[in-house]
Design brief:
Elements: E1 5-9, H1 16-27, E2 30-33, H2 52-57, E3 60-61, H3 74-91, E4 95-99, H4 102-110, H5 120-130, H6 135-145, H7 147-152, H8 158-171, E5 192-197, H9 201-218, H10 220-229, H11 244-251, H12 257-282, E6 287-289, H13 296-304
Parallel strand pairs: 1-4, 1-5, 2-3, 2-4, 5-6
């Protein structure tokens, strides 16, 4: 790539999107999404996707381009990202890649394991068989077939458990057996400016709670109700977005609204902890920035290093 990429990672509600927008405006770049939930067009509010007004200020790419019925994967993201980076490079536009999905950044920087593709028909069969089962039950099923991969996964990590079951169904081999050599990465760490925004936990948790309240005021419940009306498979990634399962439980009469909101906030906090852990161990080239809100000093740090 001739255009130097700026990578901005961090936990949810850390201010990444605002920072990416400010930097893209300053350098004449484009904001490129690296958040696995913000790819879904059905979920603008509940995933805190940039607003239409923000998207109008600079070019935004890979936001809301996937239907909620699609089981979007890291591999598909890399394909979309590769095409996006080629297009920006041809125009001499700097990509400002922003998001909280550490696996997207890791795959782009270090390559993705060469795991065989799973036919959509077989994928649908595996997910249909899993419908109605608790993640812990599916984890136990995986442990009986692929104990090595199961040992690496949390019993509540539904998406990765299903992925491992799909690969086993398609190949008869453990997912771990394919996690060796990696494909050529899309980005060279030496050609990127990479930052991880790390506000203190108390500030971050307050921001998470305040943002969830704001999303509710903006119509998150109506957005989830529209998703519910589509009657999609509950195992799909879009149906597992933070806040969605609990708001669905409220809409189905299985939970009070106050409890749904409380649980949505709590799940988001737990996710933020995992984002810190992943970045600490899996994203070694990222410079951690702990400046508080607002991020003027962080923005200046990014610009000064270009």
């Amino acid at each position: 790539m001739s255009a130097r990429a700026i990578l901005i990672a961090g936990p949810t509600a850390s201010g990444k999107s605002a920072l990416a927008l400010a930097i893209a405006k300053r350098v004449g770049g484009a904001v490129v999404n690296a958040d696995s939930m913000q790819v879904y067009r059905d979920l603008r509010i509940i995933t805190a996707r940039p607003t239409p007004e923000e998207e109008a200020e600079v070019e935004h790419l890979l936001f809301g381009h996937v239907d909620a019925a699609v089981n979007y994967s890291v591999g598909r993201y890399l394909g979309d990202l590769a095409a996006t980076l080629r297009g920006l490079d041809a125009r001499g536009v700097a990509p400002v890649v922003v998001g909280g999905t550490g696996m997207y950044f890791k795959a782009a920087l270090y390559g993705l394991s060469d795991i065989p593709a799973v036919a959509e028909e077989l994928r649908a069969q595996v997910r249909a068989a899993a419908e109605g089962k608790r993640p812990q039950e599916l984890h136990a099923e995986l442990a009986s077939k692929d104990p090595e991969t199961a040992a690496r996964l949390r019993p509540t990590d539904l998406q990765r458990i299903l992925r491992a079951l799909e690969v086993f169904a398609a190949t008869g081999k453990p997912l771990a057996s394919f996690q060796g050599p990696r494909a050529t990465p899309l980005l060279d760490p030496a050609q990127c400016l990479a930052f991880f925004l790390a506000p203190d936990r108390e500030t971050l948790y307050a921001r998470i709670d305040a943002r969830f309240n704001k999303m509710m005021e903006m119509g998150a419940l109506d957005e989830v109700a529209a998703l519910r009306d589509r009657r999609l498979n509950p195992a799909l990634p879009a149906m597992r977005a933070h806040g969605v399962p609990h708001l669905l439980a409220y809409l189905d009469g299985r939970m009070s609204l106050d409890e749904a909101i409380m649980r949505g906030k709590l799940d988001t906090r737990h996710y933020a902890k995992r984002q810190f852990t992943f970045a600490r161990h899996q994203l070694p080239y990222f410079e951690w920035l702990s400046v508080g809100d607002p991020w003027a000093a962080v923005e200046a740090a990014c610009i000064s290093r270009m």
